[in-house]
Design goal:
By secondary structure, the protein is α/β, with parallel strands linked by helices. The chain is built from eight helices and 14 strands. The protein has one domain: Ribonuclease Z/Hydroxyacylglutathione hydrolase-like (Metallo-beta-lactamase, Chain A). The strands form two sheets. The chain has a seven-stranded mixed β-sheet, with helices on one face. Strands 7-8-9-10-11-12-13 form a seven-stranded mixed β-sheet. The longest helix has 13 residues, at 95-107. The chain is globular and about 55 Å long. The structure holds zinc ion (ZN).
């Protein structure tokens, strides 16, 4: 079965036990294979905490340029190098997101210029448009579409596990968006942000629930959570879409 790992479920600042929102998908294949989405923190430590080895990473998708989605990229590169990776690391995203990651890596050039055997970075720029093909290598078929995150170009994802046809959708950071309804249509699980209100270029839990209901998904998991008690928001969201939960930090979910 395909599995979603919630490597982080917080907003840029959140509860003490939640780091920035990052996720990964895997399945039962041997040797293990994992795709990671975003790196706004020590993403490989979180991956290990979910029981996934560093060398299982087939690729990294970066959604947008904000710090809480990109800032851990140089540390990720240090770790895959120390871990002995010799194959290139595919890094996939729209141009502004990859340009930010590249600037971060280049900023450390005085440090890593003499390192032997750093794995090559296979930058894969994908157009910022609906139905953009983000990943076509088995077992995943991933398409993306622009979402509404203010002035910052950003994408949501539709991740299909080809062998089973199971579908996971991820809103990333956005106000409630028609493009996410389309991406998430009849998905098994929708991971949607619930950071706050549209005036902040984000969604409320209620806004996420309305997207889930329109998309006719089976389950909604809320992420990108602000600090503090969220019981009221969860209750309001469940009134609109009953199968809603707060994402568990380091939770793994079959989808
Ligand atoms: Zn953002």
């Amino acid at each position: 079965m395909p599995t979603l790992h919630l490597l982080g479920t917080g907003a840029a600042i959140s509860d003490a036990h939640r780091t920035t929102t990052m996720l990964a998908v895997s399945d039962d294949h041997s040797p293990p294979r994992t795709l990671v989405v975003d790196c706004g923190g020590d993403v490989l430590q979180r991956l290990q905490a979910c029981g996934r080895p560093i060398d299982s990473v087939d690729g990294l998708i970066i959604t947008h340029a904000h710090m809480d989605h990109t800032s851990g990229f140089p540390l990720l590169m240090e770790k895959v190098w120390l871990d002995g990776r010799d194959r290139a690391l595919p890094v996939v995203g729209i141009e502004p997101a990859l340009a930010q990651a590249k600037r971060l890596w280049d900023a450390y050039e005085p440090v890593h210029v003499d390192w032997d055997g750093i794995p090559a970075i296979d930058w894969r720029v994908v157009p910022h448009e609906p139905d953009a093909p983000f990943w076509t290598h088995p077992p995943w078929t991933i398409t993306a579409a622009p979402v509404d995150h203010g002035d910052t170009p950003n994408v949501g994802l539709r991740i299909e596990h080809a062998p089973t046809g199971r579908v996971l959708a991820y809103s990333c950071d956005t106000t409630p968006a028609k493009s996410v309804v389309d991406l998430a249509s009849t998905a098994d699980t929708l991971v949607h942000e619930a950071n706050g209100g549209p005036t902040e270029n984000h969604s409320t839990a209620v806004g996420a629930a309305e997207v889930a209901r329109k998309a006719d998904v089976d389950r909604l998991l809320l992420v990108h959570l602000p600090p503090g008690d969220k019981s009221n928001q969860l209750r309001e969201a469940r009134a609109i879409f009953p199968h809603t939960d707060l994402g568990d930090e380091l939770g793994s979910y079959s989808f």
